[in-house]
Amino acid sequence: QILTQPAAQRAWLGVETVSVDSAATATALGLDPNVRGAAVVGVIPSGPIVDSEIQPGDVIVSVDGQPIRSAVDLSTALATFAPGQTVQVGLTTRTGQHSVDVRLGERPPA
Question: Which of 77, 79, 81 minimizes the C-alpha distance to 90?
């Protein structure tokens, strides 16, 4: 689906992420060594989550109940949604776990 849809039709959170796919990476980020997901390292100022609770340092661990164990998993999960849909994003932060609802945007042209 990613390859057949033009970029402007792909769902987008507006975050830059890195994979948290090992205990060493999780520990380096100050998290429990068992945490896996996509760590937010940047928020795009014009992106859909700019006004949400998602901040750099948070780790996205699920999208609408789909487990996220890496940045690739996040991209794969987002490919199943359309721009404009609202999804529940599960987060692990240094202070605990919570979820936020986010309305997905359209990926801007490259």
Answer: 77
Q: What percent of the chain has pLDDT over 90?
A: 67
pLDDT of residue 2: 46
DSSP string, 41-97: EEE-TTSTTTTSS--TT-EEEEETTEE--SHHHHHHHHTTS-TT-EEEEEEEETTEE
Q: Which two tokens stand for residue 19?
A: 């994979």
Task: Provide the terminal-to-terminal Cα distance of the chain, rounded to the nearest Å.
Answer: 18
Q: What angle do CA 109, 16, 51 make, to 5 degrees?
A: 85
Q: Which tokens sit at 40?
A: 């937010």
1-38: pLDDT as tens digits: 445 555 557 888 999 999 999 999 999 988 899 999 99
Which is it for the CA torsion 53, 48, 9, 109, positive or negative? negative
